Give the backbone structure.
Amino acid sequence: MPDKESPECARCPFRPADRLCKTENGKALPSCPTAEKGEILQKALEEYNRPEIHEFAKQAAIQEGEGYSNKESGYEHLKPAKPRIEEIMDFARKMKYQRLGLAFCTGLSREAAVVEKIFTANGFEVVSVICKAGRVRKEEIGIDDMEKVDPGSDESMCNPIFQAYLLNDADTEFNIMLGLCVGHDSLFLKYSDAPCTVLAVKDRLLGHNPLAAIYTTESYYRYLAGR
Protein backbone atom coordinates (compact mmCIF):
# COMPACT_ATOMS: atom_id res chain seq x y z
CA MET A 1 0.00 0.00 0.00
CA PRO A 2 1.33 3.48 -0.85
CA ASP A 3 2.01 5.90 1.98
CA LYS A 4 -1.10 7.99 2.47
CA GLU A 5 0.20 10.20 5.28
CA SER A 6 -0.63 13.79 4.45
CA PRO A 7 1.87 16.67 4.60
CA GLU A 8 1.95 18.70 7.82
CA CYS A 9 4.32 21.47 6.76
CA ALA A 10 2.62 24.04 8.99
CA ARG A 11 3.64 21.92 11.99
CA CYS A 12 7.31 21.61 11.02
CA PRO A 13 9.33 22.41 14.19
CA PHE A 14 12.67 23.05 12.50
CA ARG A 15 14.15 26.43 11.62
CA PRO A 16 13.46 27.29 7.96
CA ALA A 17 17.17 27.23 7.12
CA ASP A 18 17.46 23.70 8.58
CA ARG A 19 14.50 22.15 6.77
CA LEU A 20 14.91 19.56 4.03
CA CYS A 21 12.86 21.70 1.64
CA LYS A 22 15.53 24.41 1.95
CA THR A 23 18.76 22.50 2.59
CA GLU A 24 20.19 19.25 1.23
CA ASN A 25 20.28 16.67 4.01
CA GLY A 26 18.10 18.98 6.09
CA LYS A 27 15.72 17.93 8.84
CA ALA A 28 12.22 16.64 8.16
CA LEU A 29 9.10 15.32 9.82
CA PRO A 30 8.04 11.74 8.95
CA SER A 31 5.28 13.24 6.77
CA CYS A 32 7.64 15.62 4.91
CA PRO A 33 6.52 15.76 1.26
CA THR A 34 10.05 16.58 0.10
CA ALA A 35 11.24 13.28 1.57
CA GLU A 36 8.18 11.10 1.08
CA LYS A 37 6.23 12.25 -1.97
CA GLY A 38 8.74 11.87 -4.79
CA GLU A 39 6.22 10.35 -7.18
CA ILE A 40 3.87 13.30 -6.82
CA LEU A 41 6.82 15.69 -7.13
CA GLN A 42 7.78 14.12 -10.46
CA LYS A 43 4.20 14.51 -11.66
CA ALA A 44 4.35 18.22 -10.77
CA LEU A 45 7.73 18.66 -12.48
CA GLU A 46 6.27 17.18 -15.66
CA GLU A 47 3.70 19.98 -15.67
CA TYR A 48 6.47 22.59 -15.49
CA ASN A 49 7.84 21.10 -18.71
CA ARG A 50 4.76 22.24 -20.62
CA PRO A 51 5.97 25.34 -22.52
CA GLU A 52 3.23 27.72 -21.36
CA ILE A 53 3.48 26.55 -17.75
CA HIS A 54 7.28 26.63 -17.83
CA GLU A 55 7.29 30.27 -18.92
CA PHE A 56 4.68 31.25 -16.34
CA ALA A 57 6.59 29.56 -13.52
CA LYS A 58 9.90 31.01 -14.70
CA GLN A 59 8.57 34.56 -14.79
CA ALA A 60 6.90 34.12 -11.39
CA ALA A 61 10.22 33.06 -9.90
CA ILE A 62 11.97 36.02 -11.52
CA GLN A 63 9.26 38.30 -10.10
CA GLU A 64 9.86 36.85 -6.64
CA GLY A 65 13.55 37.67 -6.88
CA GLU A 66 12.85 41.20 -8.08
CA GLY A 67 10.66 41.79 -5.04
CA TYR A 68 13.79 42.41 -2.97
CA SER A 69 16.64 44.89 -3.06
CA ASN A 70 20.01 45.10 -1.30
CA LYS A 71 20.89 41.55 -2.35
CA GLU A 72 24.58 42.40 -2.54
CA SER A 73 24.62 42.76 1.26
CA GLY A 74 23.45 39.20 1.85
CA TYR A 75 20.19 37.45 2.71
CA GLU A 76 19.91 38.92 6.20
CA HIS A 77 19.92 42.44 4.74
CA LEU A 78 17.27 42.04 2.04
CA LYS A 79 14.70 44.82 1.74
CA PRO A 80 11.26 44.65 0.14
CA ALA A 81 11.27 46.60 -3.10
CA LYS A 82 7.72 46.90 -4.47
CA PRO A 83 4.07 46.90 -3.38
CA ARG A 84 1.89 44.09 -4.69
CA ILE A 85 0.07 46.21 -7.25
CA GLU A 86 3.39 47.09 -8.86
CA GLU A 87 4.45 43.44 -8.84
CA ILE A 88 1.20 42.49 -10.58
CA MET A 89 1.93 44.96 -13.36
CA ASP A 90 5.56 43.83 -13.60
CA PHE A 91 4.49 40.21 -13.92
CA ALA A 92 1.85 41.06 -16.52
CA ARG A 93 4.54 42.76 -18.60
CA LYS A 94 6.85 39.78 -18.24
CA MET A 95 4.08 37.56 -19.60
CA LYS A 96 3.22 40.11 -22.29
CA TYR A 97 -0.34 40.41 -20.97
CA GLN A 98 -2.08 43.53 -22.20
CA ARG A 99 -5.74 42.93 -21.40
CA LEU A 100 -6.42 42.67 -17.67
CA GLY A 101 -9.64 41.66 -15.94
CA LEU A 102 -10.61 43.26 -12.64
CA ALA A 103 -13.22 41.36 -10.62
CA PHE A 104 -14.16 43.41 -7.58
CA CYS A 105 -16.60 43.63 -4.70
CA THR A 106 -19.15 46.41 -4.57
CA GLY A 107 -17.77 47.30 -1.13
CA LEU A 108 -14.46 48.16 -2.74
CA SER A 109 -15.83 50.20 -5.63
CA ARG A 110 -13.75 53.23 -4.71
CA GLU A 111 -10.59 51.15 -4.52
CA ALA A 112 -11.46 49.48 -7.84
CA ALA A 113 -11.71 52.87 -9.53
CA VAL A 114 -8.22 53.77 -8.30
CA VAL A 115 -6.81 50.39 -9.34
CA GLU A 116 -8.34 50.73 -12.80
CA LYS A 117 -6.76 54.16 -13.21
CA ILE A 118 -3.37 52.81 -12.14
CA PHE A 119 -3.50 49.93 -14.60
CA THR A 120 -4.69 52.17 -17.41
CA ALA A 121 -2.05 54.82 -16.67
CA ASN A 122 0.55 52.09 -17.00
CA GLY A 123 -0.57 51.10 -20.46
CA PHE A 124 -2.92 48.18 -19.79
CA GLU A 125 -6.42 47.60 -21.12
CA VAL A 126 -8.81 46.91 -18.24
CA VAL A 127 -12.13 45.06 -18.25
CA SER A 128 -13.77 45.50 -14.85
CA VAL A 129 -16.80 43.69 -13.44
CA ILE A 130 -18.54 44.35 -10.13
CA CYS A 131 -19.82 41.45 -8.02
CA LYS A 132 -23.49 42.51 -8.24
CA ALA A 133 -23.52 42.52 -12.06
CA GLY A 134 -26.70 40.93 -13.42
CA ARG A 135 -28.92 42.10 -10.56
CA VAL A 136 -30.04 38.57 -9.68
CA ARG A 137 -32.17 38.44 -6.54
CA LYS A 138 -30.75 36.34 -3.70
CA GLU A 139 -34.01 34.38 -3.60
CA GLU A 140 -32.87 32.76 -6.87
CA ILE A 141 -30.29 30.71 -4.92
CA GLY A 142 -32.58 29.99 -1.99
CA ILE A 143 -31.62 32.78 0.39
CA ASP A 144 -34.24 33.58 3.05
CA ASP A 145 -35.01 37.18 3.89
CA MET A 146 -33.27 37.06 7.28
CA GLU A 147 -30.14 35.66 5.64
CA LYS A 148 -29.70 38.83 3.62
CA VAL A 149 -27.33 41.64 4.54
CA ASP A 150 -30.34 43.97 4.62
CA PRO A 151 -33.49 41.97 5.47
CA GLY A 152 -36.62 43.29 3.84
CA SER A 153 -34.78 44.64 0.82
CA ASP A 154 -34.66 43.49 -2.79
CA GLU A 155 -31.04 42.38 -2.46
CA SER A 156 -28.87 41.30 -5.37
CA MET A 157 -26.63 38.29 -4.94
CA CYS A 158 -22.91 38.35 -5.59
CA ASN A 159 -22.41 36.69 -8.95
CA PRO A 160 -18.81 35.47 -9.33
CA ILE A 161 -19.64 32.98 -12.07
CA PHE A 162 -21.12 35.82 -14.15
CA GLN A 163 -18.03 37.91 -13.40
CA ALA A 164 -15.81 35.09 -14.65
CA TYR A 165 -17.95 34.46 -17.74
CA LEU A 166 -17.91 38.17 -18.64
CA LEU A 167 -14.12 38.31 -18.40
CA ASN A 168 -13.87 35.07 -20.39
CA ASP A 169 -16.10 36.63 -23.04
CA ALA A 170 -13.87 39.72 -23.10
CA ASP A 171 -10.76 37.54 -23.67
CA THR A 172 -8.86 38.92 -20.70
CA GLU A 173 -5.37 37.51 -20.33
CA PHE A 174 -4.85 37.93 -16.58
CA ASN A 175 -7.57 38.43 -13.98
CA ILE A 176 -7.10 40.36 -10.74
CA MET A 177 -9.42 39.77 -7.80
CA LEU A 178 -10.18 42.64 -5.45
CA GLY A 179 -12.11 41.92 -2.26
CA LEU A 180 -14.39 39.08 -3.33
CA CYS A 181 -16.14 37.33 -0.45
CA VAL A 182 -15.01 33.97 0.91
CA GLY A 183 -16.60 31.37 -1.34
CA HIS A 184 -17.39 33.84 -4.09
CA ASP A 185 -13.65 34.10 -4.72
CA SER A 186 -13.52 30.30 -4.96
CA LEU A 187 -16.22 30.23 -7.61
CA PHE A 188 -14.53 32.97 -9.59
CA LEU A 189 -11.27 31.02 -9.61
CA LYS A 190 -13.11 27.87 -10.66
CA TYR A 191 -14.81 29.48 -13.66
CA SER A 192 -12.15 31.91 -14.90
CA ASP A 193 -10.43 30.86 -18.11
CA ALA A 194 -7.50 33.25 -17.61
CA PRO A 195 -4.93 32.81 -14.85
CA CYS A 196 -5.76 34.83 -11.75
CA THR A 197 -4.04 36.67 -8.95
CA VAL A 198 -5.30 38.48 -5.86
CA LEU A 199 -4.64 42.14 -5.14
CA ALA A 200 -6.58 42.16 -1.87
CA VAL A 201 -8.92 39.85 0.01
CA LYS A 202 -11.98 40.83 1.95
CA ASP A 203 -11.90 41.21 5.72
CA ARG A 204 -14.82 43.39 6.73
CA LEU A 205 -13.74 43.69 10.34
CA LEU A 206 -10.02 44.30 9.85
CA GLY A 207 -10.00 46.69 6.91
CA HIS A 208 -9.11 43.91 4.44
CA ASN A 209 -6.02 42.92 6.43
CA PRO A 210 -6.86 39.38 7.63
CA LEU A 211 -3.36 38.77 8.94
CA ALA A 212 -4.02 41.29 11.71
CA ALA A 213 -5.96 38.54 13.51
CA ILE A 214 -3.10 36.10 12.98
CA TYR A 215 -0.52 38.55 14.29
CA THR A 216 -2.53 39.09 17.49
CA THR A 217 -3.43 35.51 18.47
CA GLU A 218 -1.29 36.00 21.57
CA SER A 219 -3.44 38.94 22.65
CA TYR A 220 -6.68 40.31 21.19
CA TYR A 221 -7.52 37.29 19.03
CA ARG A 222 -6.30 34.59 21.44
CA TYR A 223 -9.75 32.99 21.42
CA LEU A 224 -9.16 31.90 17.82
CA ALA A 225 -6.38 29.59 18.98
CA GLY A 226 -8.36 28.39 22.00
CA ARG A 227 -6.28 30.33 24.52
